[in-house]
Amino acid sequence: MPVDINRLTDGWLELESDPGLFTLLLEDFGTQGVQVEEIYDVQKSLEGPVYGFIFLFRWIEERRSRRKVVEENETFCKDEETVNNMFFAQQVVPNSCATHALLSVLLNCSSIQLGEVLTRLKEHAAGMNPENKGWAIGNTPEIACAHNSHAMPQARRRPPDKNVTTVSSARSTSETFHFVSYVPINGRLFELDGLKPYPVDHGLWSEDEEWTDKFKRVITERLGISNGEQAQDIRFNLMAVVPDRRIAITHKLTMLKTNRQIVLEALQQLMKLTNQNSTENYSNKNSASSMNNSNSNADIGKSEKSNEKKEKTEDENSDDVVKMEIDGTNSIPIISKEQCPQSTTEASSSNAKPSTRTAKRAAASDSSRTTTAPKRRRGRTKGKKRK
């Protein structure tokens, strides 16, 4: 909505405690890579880095005196140089505590891309005291326009009142709420509240813990004493300023796409190698099969030649006839020493028997001799008769 530049410090509207609204406000400031998300469980571990926390609590007038007792025990950072070097601004504009709390986180973090408007504000307010920094915020039209563009529809301007001009009515006119921020600065945890004259120094955190662990202990203690009564009527809201999750998800998606492309290329190379190896194995298999066939044919030829040679040897052995010598009426088969594998003693033994073939041939010889002999005797007999 349009803002009267001459009434910048008197025209800020109330904002609702909503992380989505704060994220849109960041974008209107020109800040990049940052978002705001709500924290539902203080004891739950936080994922990823956190730039700072924004704490909303109910402001109760009749119990403010009890808060004063607590403030007396708080440790304020009163060193002028330290206070002026950090961005701590006193709230001088009504209903601006939400933007104050958000700027207290953004302008104290060096790793955030602030954008043109906030960078100019940070450079302009460098070295100023907290009050002047508050006036610098209230007199920046871009910040006022962004703030009022996200105001609640039912928000209405209030007349100045010394008691409630610097707090925000985030829920209704009967309930007043206030925003403060917690940020790590130079190794120490600070609470930045625009209603207080100085930052609250909560000290160092241990070497074996994160600054968020220190914050959990501080905020847990505060929740117990926020209304002066332990664990009764506690109404608060806690939000964290964190890196934009969309950037992390986009980066992760890009990495997954890159890895997918690498895997696909590797699979293609593997398929090529597999096909090449299959072709080579097929060729080698065919070559081996042809060689085996050749060797088999050669073995068959050798076997046939061996069988022919063996048969020839057997035929020669069978044709080697045992020679017989006939002396008188006794016929003794004479076997050459090479044809008889038995020892000389066995061959001369009376119990030794000739082979079947030799015996048959000897019998045939005896038969021939026996048959021929009578014919000669008959011839001689006939001769005598002729005489």
UniProtKB/TrEMBL annotation:
<keyword id="KW-0645">Protease</keyword>
<dbReference type="InterPro" id="IPR001578">
    <property type="entry name" value="Peptidase_C12_UCH"/>
</dbReference>
<keyword id="KW-0833">Ubl conjugation pathway</keyword>
<feature type="region of interest" description="Disordered">
    <location>
        <begin position="278"/>
        <end position="387"/>
    </location>
</feature>
<keyword id="KW-0156">Chromatin regulator</keyword>
<comment type="subunit">
    <text>Catalytic component of the polycomb repressive deubiquitinase (PR-DUB) complex, at least composed of caly/calypso, Asx and sba (MBD5/6 homolog). The PR-DUB complex associates with nucleosomes to mediate deubiquitination of histone H2AK118ub1 substrates; the association requires the positively charged C-terminal tail of caly, probably due to direct binding of DNA. Interacts (via ULD domain) with Asx (via DEUBAD domain); the interaction produces a stable heterodimer with a composite binding site for ubiquitin.</text>
</comment>
<dbReference type="InterPro" id="IPR036959">
    <property type="entry name" value="Peptidase_C12_UCH_sf"/>
</dbReference>
<feature type="site" description="Important for enzyme activity">
    <location>
        <position position="193"/>
    </location>
</feature>
<feature type="active site" description="Proton donor">
    <location>
        <position position="178"/>
    </location>
</feature>
<feature type="active site" description="Nucleophile">
    <location>
        <position position="97"/>
    </location>
</feature>
<keyword id="KW-0378">Hydrolase</keyword>
<feature type="compositionally biased region" description="Polar residues">
    <location>
        <begin position="328"/>
        <end position="354"/>
    </location>
</feature>
<keyword id="KW-0788">Thiol protease</keyword>
<feature type="compositionally biased region" description="Basic and acidic residues">
    <location>
        <begin position="301"/>
        <end position="326"/>
    </location>
</feature>
<dbReference type="GO" id="GO:0006511">
    <property type="term" value="P:ubiquitin-dependent protein catabolic process"/>
</dbReference>
<keyword id="KW-0539">Nucleus</keyword>
<dbReference type="GO" id="GO:0016579">
    <property type="term" value="P:protein deubiquitination"/>
</dbReference>
<feature type="compositionally biased region" description="Low complexity">
    <location>
        <begin position="281"/>
        <end position="297"/>
    </location>
</feature>
<dbReference type="Pfam" id="PF01088">
    <property type="entry name" value="Peptidase_C12"/>
</dbReference>
<dbReference type="GO" id="GO:0005634">
    <property type="term" value="C:nucleus"/>
</dbReference>
<dbReference type="GO" id="GO:0004843">
    <property type="term" value="F:cysteine-type deubiquitinase activity"/>
</dbReference>
<comment type="function">
    <text>Catalytic component of the polycomb repressive deubiquitinase (PR-DUB) complex, a complex that specifically mediates deubiquitination of histone H2A monoubiquitinated at 'Lys-119' (H2AK118ub1). Mediates bisymmetric organization of the PR-DUB complex and is involved in association with nucleosomes to mediate deubiquitination. Does not deubiquitinate monoubiquitinated histone H2B. Required to maintain the transcriptionally repressive state of homeotic genes throughout development. The PR-DUB complex has weak or no activity toward 'Lys-48'- and 'Lys-63'-linked polyubiquitin chains.</text>
</comment>
<protein>
    <recommendedName>
        <fullName>Ubiquitin carboxyl-terminal hydrolase</fullName>
        <ecNumber>3.4.19.12</ecNumber>
    </recommendedName>
</protein>
<feature type="site" description="Transition state stabilizer">
    <location>
        <position position="91"/>
    </location>
</feature>
<dbReference type="GO" id="GO:0005737">
    <property type="term" value="C:cytoplasm"/>
</dbReference>
<feature type="compositionally biased region" description="Low complexity">
    <location>
        <begin position="355"/>
        <end position="373"/>
    </location>
</feature>
<comment type="similarity">
    <text>Belongs to the peptidase C12 family. BAP1 subfamily.</text>
</comment>
<dbReference type="GO" id="GO:0006325">
    <property type="term" value="P:chromatin organization"/>
</dbReference>
<feature type="domain" description="UCH catalytic">
    <location>
        <begin position="11"/>
        <end position="243"/>
    </location>
</feature>
<feature type="compositionally biased region" description="Basic residues">
    <location>
        <begin position="374"/>
        <end position="387"/>
    </location>
</feature>
<dbReference type="InterPro" id="IPR038765">
    <property type="entry name" value="Papain-like_cys_pep_sf"/>
</dbReference>
